[in-house]
Amino acid sequence: MKEATQRPIGFLLSDMDGTLLLPDHSLSQRTIDAVRSLREAGVLFSLATGRPPKAMLQVIEALGVDLPTAAFNGGTLVNPDGSFLVAHYLPATAALTTLTLLCGLPDVEVWVFSGGDWLVKDAHGPMVPSEQHGLGYPPVVVDSFEPYLARIDKIVAASNNAGLLIELEARLLRQVEGQAQVSRSQPVYLDVTAMQANKGEALVTLARHLGVPLEQTAAMGDGGNDPAMFQVAGLSIAMGQAEEAVRRQADVVTGANTEDGTAQAIEQYILPR
């Protein structure tokens, strides 16, 4: 854990699910007001999430975000006009290795994100309704993922068996070492993305783009894909309900997302600076 400094924060990059958003994927009024207070204080604010770009639009609009945002764990940086600032795709070899391991496993649903679509082989998987509610649009059913290997943004293994995902994470890390990032964005989701697709790289790129020194940036999140940005931010903030391994890597810990932890952090650790 870095020692939290007292430099003024000029840019906050926040995770969405489990951080900004309540469990039902909504925003509390206190969170909306806190982000508005940031903007009024001249602090830049943007989003970094494992979601695809079009699943961010409602939150972008609700919070008035007018900066580039990071989708697919930082694999795609999207300008406010919808154009791409950066786009990194999973190498076809790593994608094939991942799909070979995951497809056919019991208790695991395999989802592929490509070309703006959420691809599944079974639209009736038990975790599909929850994901569809969170994303705001339905999946596209395909017979095979192979036609999409050249342009995959992210592969997700979804399962309510969190222990199994921990085992799969360790196996995949060995099999795609040096080719892909593997992390659990939530206990029930295991994400596989390009090597450059991580929130730490996204924070560095966005800070450079915005002209904000890294020591004057803050990062906030709750999942296994968030410590990558904790490691480069001037101030890192973990949510109260995050796993201990995530909380341990942050400078400070705020309340849970069900307790308006994002607003608490903004009010306590950022605005006073």
TrEMBL record:
**Gene3D superfamilies this protein is in?**
3.30.1240.10, HAD superfamily/HAD-like
Q: Is Zinc one of the keywords?
A: no
The top of its lineage is: Bacteria, Pseudomonadati, Pseudomonadota, Gammaproteobacteria, Pseudomonadales
- Native species of this protein? Pseudomonas fluorescens
One GO CC annotation, please? cytosol
Pfam families, alphabetized: Hydrolase_3
Residue ranges of the TM segments: none
Q: Which UniProt keywords apply?
A: Hydrolase
Is-annotated flag, keyword Methyltransferase? no
List the PANTHER family hit by this protein, alphabetically. Answer: HAD SUPERFAMILY HYDROLASE-LIKE, TYPE 3 (PTHR10000:SF8), PHOSPHOSERINE PHOSPHATASE (PTHR10000)
Note the CDD domains from the entry: HAD_Pase
The molecule here is called: HAD hydrolase, IIB family protein
Can you name one GO molecular function term for this protein?
magnesium ion binding
Against InterPro entries, the record matches this protein to: Cof, HAD-like_sf, HAD-SF_hydro_IIB, HAD_sf
Q: Which domain of life is it from?
A: Bacteria
